[in-house]
Design goal:
The chain is an all-alpha fold. Helices cover 76% and strands 0% of the residues. It folds into two domains: 1-11 and 20-174, UbiA prenyltransferase (Tetracycline Repressor, domain 2), CATH 1.10.357; 176-307, Four Helix Bundle (Hemerythrin (Met), subunit A), CATH 1.20.120. The protein has 17 helices and no strands. Pfam families: UbiA (PF01040).
């Protein structure tokens, strides 16, 4: 990160304290809500009981850890956030928060969330949370994002870990079930973000981020989206196949996968003509797709008799 990037926001920020609202925006609350939701699914599906207070503490720590990752990401990416249209309203480019404030907040919340999770719940869950923060803030943000077009593929591991952390919070172990929950999000991430990058390719190119459409071209990206969708579909059915979810999850999952693959195939077949609306439809549906899958898993976990 350049000195200019480090100082961005510091020169523009207002005098005095940043508002609580601006500091909260540093934590990427929309991403945080998805992290909490998928972690909750891991907690509910895990065998055994976790005291409600400890369960709430685990979710709080996971949420704070996710927020810490977001703050560190915004600190490091302040230079490119100021250039890209979709990120120019973030707190640092707006001058509402300094880059140094974001760094300090990210470090403080990282340490507090990991320490509290370890002391209150267990150290396996805390270790996984620490690894998640490190992977997102250092491996993905500081290294992969600006170095390789596989940034989303590898970096997706950070976003896929919360249900595994939730499972470990209850059981103190990691078994095949949380690995499947991890794999679903891990394989979902590339087609989800590559769909976005297709119609934001010029912005990524302008800031030197080697997203797949920028480096390999849009045709290759459309093909990769379809291939990942085809690989993802059977993995999403594993909870049903392995018996920790039933037809309440499995039947809708079949329908959702058919729609997802259909949209990916339409994007691939359409070529450059009509690519942007097709990519936007896939991106929007992919958000709904993951939410419904995990909501169904949550329902099955809360009412096992339905399976």
């Amino acid at each position: 990160m350049s000195d200019t990037a480090l100082d961005i926001g510091s020169e523009q920020a207002h005098d005095g304290f940043s508002s609580a609202s601006d500091l909260f925006q540093l934590l990427k609350p929309r991403v945080m809500s998805l992290v909490v939701f998928t972690a909750l699914v891991g907690i509910v599906l895990a065998p055994g009981d976790l005291h409600p207070i400890l369960g709430f503490t685990a979710l709080l720590c996971i949420a704070v850890g996710a927020g810490a990752s977001g703050a560190l990401n915004m600190w490091y990416d302040a230079d490119i956030d100021a250039v890209m249209r979709r990120t120019q309203t973030r707190p640092i480019p707006r001058g509402a928060v300094t880059a140094r404030e974001a760094l300090a907040l990210g470090i403080a919340l990282s340490g507090a969330s990991v320490l509290l999770l370890g002391l209150a719940v267990n150290w396996l869950a805390a270790g996984l949370l620490a690894f998640t923060i490190f992977f997102y803030a250092v491996i993905y943000t500081m290294w992969l994002k600006r170095w390789t077009p596989q940034n989303i593929v590898i970096g997706g591991a950070a976003g896929a870990l919360p249900p595994m952390i939730g499972w470990a919070a209850v059981t103190g172990t990691v078994t095949v079930e949380p690995v499947v929950l991890f794999a679903i999000i891990f394989l979902w991430t590339p087609p989800h973000f590559w769909a976005l990058s297709l119609y934001k390719a010029e912005e990524y190119a302008g800031v030197g981020v080697p997203m797949l459409p920028v480096v390999a071209g849009k045709a290759a990206t459309r093909r990769q989206i379809l291939l990942y969708s085809l690989v993802m579909a059977p993995v999403t059915l594993l909870p049903w196949g392995l018996g920790f979810a039933g037809p309440v999850y499995g039947v809708p999952a079949l329908v959702l996968n058919a729609i997802f693959i259909g949209l990916a195939a339409k994007l691939w077949r359409g070529g450059d003509a009509g690519e942007e609306p097709a990519a936007k439809r896939l991106f929007a549906f992919s958000i709904l797709y993951l939410f419904i899958l995990y909501a169904l898993l949550l329902v099955e976990g809360m009412t096992p008799s339905l399976g």
